[in-house]
Design goal:
mainly beta; Beta-galactosidase, Chain A, domain 5; five-stranded antiparallel sheet; 23 strands; catalytic activity; Aldose 1-epimerase; Gal_mutarotase_sf_dom; GH-type_carb-bd
């Protein structure tokens, strides 16, 4: 486990499993991510310990938190003769730790296609914000397609509001169950979102590279009974993505919405997550440095 902590903000990630981020919060405070340390279900392993289904294989190890999906997003598929798992192998494979200290970390992972993703994470010097800069490198001489996205799951609190440019999701009920797996795939040209718990004063803001991730997936599991949730979770996710809907890289290639990276070329992108003091006022904008405008 790697921990970043500058006295304002704390971030914890697990390089051994997808470099998934398991904790984001104020130093000494609560986790704004929904992460559950469930013993069961048993995560899929090599045959015969798999579930015989790529979606169940991925979900069996899912405990919430924040994954990065690459080079596939959504359904498992085959591209260039190579099978790609649901949400891409980068979301579950071990990542190499290139460098790490109290304020920053750089991690890297190779894909099944000849692509390498490097993520540089830094705590901002001026505010409680995590700044991510990423580079995809094509190590081959051939053009290669890919999808890239972020899969953060936040704790769904009663009365929480989500601000999206041009749209707003109504409060999550304090009681009752919304339909399992409700999801929305929405193009958001402004490239930011904010989640506000006015009662608790807790706010989370996202800003991202709109050219790399022009779409947003929004979904929730609030008391859902399917695997691996079994009624134990309260999750709402706001996910910047390359392509909608979540039908995978092969479908995105066919639709012309996948990124295509020339041989030996690189592609850079960025995303910022900031913490702020929330109230009833809607958020009007989030800058790349994490500054929130109301």
């Amino acid at each position: 486990m790697i921990a970043l902590d500058d006295g304002r903000m704390r971030v914890e990630l697990a390089p051994e499993r997808g470099a998934e981020i398991r904790f984001v919060g104020r130093s000494g405070g609560d986790n704004v991510l929904a992460f559950y340390d469930w013993a069961a279900p048993q995560p899929a392993g090599p045959a015969p310990l798999g579930y015989g289904d790529p979606e169940l294989d991925w979900l069996s190890g899912y405990r919430g938190g924040w994954q990065e999906v690459f080079p596939n997003a959504g359904a498992a598929c085959t591209v260039a003769g190579v099978p790609l798992p649901m949400h891409g192998e980068a979301s579950v494979a071990p990542w190499e730790v290139v460098a790490a200290d109290e304020r920053s970390a750089t991690v890297r992972v190779a894909a099944r296609l000849p692509l390498v993703l490097e993520r540089r994470m830094t705590l901002d010097a001026d505010r409680a914000a995590l700044r991510i800069e990423e580079t995809v490198t094509n190590e081959s001489d051939l053009e290669m397609p890919f999808l890239l996205g972020h899969h953060p799951a936040f704790e769904a609190l009663p009365g929480m509001r989500i601000d999206l440019p041009g749209a707003q999701i109504e409060p999550i009920p304090a009681e009752g169950v919304i339909r399992e797996g409700d999801a929305f795939h929405t193009r958001r040209p402004e490239g930011w979102a904010a989640l506000r718990d006015a009662a608790g004063g807790r706010g989370v803001a996202l800003a991202w590279d709109l050219e790399t991730m022009p779409d947003v997936w929004v979904w929730h599991e609030i008391g859902g009974t399917g695997m691996p949730f079994y009624g134990r979770s309260r999750i709402v996710a706001v996910e910047p993505m390359t392509h909608s809907p979540g039908d995978g890289l092969a479908a995105a290639v066919a639709a012309g919405t996948a990124h295509r990276l020339a041989g030996r070329a690189t592609h850079t992108s960025w995303l910022t997550l900031a913490l702020f003091d929330a109230d009833e006022r809607p958020v009007r904008g989030v800058a790349r440095d994490g500054q929130v405008t109301r």
